[in-house]
Structures are given as C-alpha cells and as structure tokens.
Write a structure and sequence with these properties.
Helices cover 47% and strands 13% of the residues. By secondary structure, the chain is an alpha/beta fold. It has a six-stranded mixed beta sheet, sandwiched between helices. Helix 1 crosses helix 7 and helix 3 (86-98) packs parallel to helix 8. The two termini are 31 Å apart.
Amino acid sequence: FFRSASPTSRSSDRGRTAVSLTVKLALGPLLVAQAVWTRRRLPRLPEPEGPRRGHVGAARATPLRLLITGDSSAAGVGVVTQQEALAVQLAERTAEACGARVQWRLLARSGLTTAQTLQLLQRELVPGGAEHPDVAVVVTGVNDVVDQVSSRLAVSARESLVNWLRNAHGVQHVVFAPLPPIHHFPGLPQPLRWVAGSDAMRHNAALKRWAASRGDVSRVEMETPLNKGVMAADGFHPGEPVYRYCASSIAQHLAAHVWPQLHL
C-alpha cells in the first residue's frame, strides 16, 4: 500500500506543483464533481475490532515501547480484526526482527490529517504519565491530500508532532510511512486519481527531504504494486496482504536503522 516517491529534486518538485495546479484549474469543476461522487459511492468501512494495545515477544528480552498512530490505515480500516491490520502485525514482526519484548499501543482514527493526529495524541497521551513510547510509527498523509493541505503545511505538522512527542514524552525516534501511490487506487476515477497521485508524490518528496534533515526522524523506503486483489472492497484502503507487507517493511526498517541507536 505504501510506496516511496522516486528521487525528486526541488526543481522537478516545483515543476510538478505547477503542472498539478494547471490541471486543477483546468479540470476544477470535473474534479469537484468526481470527488463528491466518489465520497457518496465508496462504502464507509469500519475500523477493525480487537485490542489496541498489548505485549509481544520473549518475556526476558529488552523492552521496546512502540506507539502506532495516524489515520484509517494506521487504524486498520479494510480488514475485519486488528490481528489482520498493521499494528498487531508490526508489533509481532518488530519483536522478532529486533529480539525485543514489544509493548505496543495504537492511537489512530479514520479521516485524520497529520495535524489532527497530533491533536489526538495530545488528548490521549498525558505528559508525565506512565506511558512513554521509545519509538513512534506515524501513518498519515492521504487525508492531507484529500483536504488539500499543502506539502509545506503537512511537513510543518509533522515537525510539530515529532517535537511534541520528543519534548512531552521523551520519544527517541519517529518513523514515518510514505504516502501510498494514490495514482494506483482502483477506487478513484480518472483524472481525480492522477491529480491526487501527483499531490501524494509531491508530499512524499517534501517528507523525504525533511526526514533527512533530522537525526530523530526517518522515513521507510518501501514499494508495492496496488490492485483490486490486495486492497479492500472500496478500492481505497489496504487489504490484509498490504498490511502484512507494510508491517514487515517497517519492522525491517526499525531493526536496521532505529533499534541499534536506541538507549534502552
């Protein structure tokens, strides 16, 4: 489901912005009509049932406190149970890859932008409380595109989210999943799919540049093709095979790039 954007220079990013804006202006009425039609047509899938916190891994292994947060994909929309969704599979694979005892918690909700994800965390995580995640995995961005949040403001929201997690809870590292290739979403009609996909690639390029500028932030490099066979019935959310792939990719990233640097 998640795929990193191709290496993109600042100049080509500006060029893509200009092209996207030109297309949006030219196709404005059609894009609005398609967006309204799509919202009405797509089924509203529920968040999956199941626990949103737990422990996994050998009892005597080094403990790792892991927070998973974000939008509907973080919450697991598209599958029936949390066991099939991202958080549980990520915790299990991280425990295996790092040889850790993972204490995990999921704080996510459908429809959240990056800025709204920070607001959710500020409501649910009490500074000075018992829970202090060592690492956070953030899955946001699609709703920034849907709500037409600029890539600059989305990066600013990510900056605020990371700074709050670090300063209020001592989180050592924040991992961001890249935006998915929206231009491959079968649930979206053309040209809406192409325009939204172009916006997602621009957001990914901005996320990649920003993450590279900080030592306590990283972005997962992963790529997988999308088709109806691996996505949910709405053609917009992941299916279990995609969640499985993403959990494995993020866990491998944690084991290779984050786990060796943690002070536990």
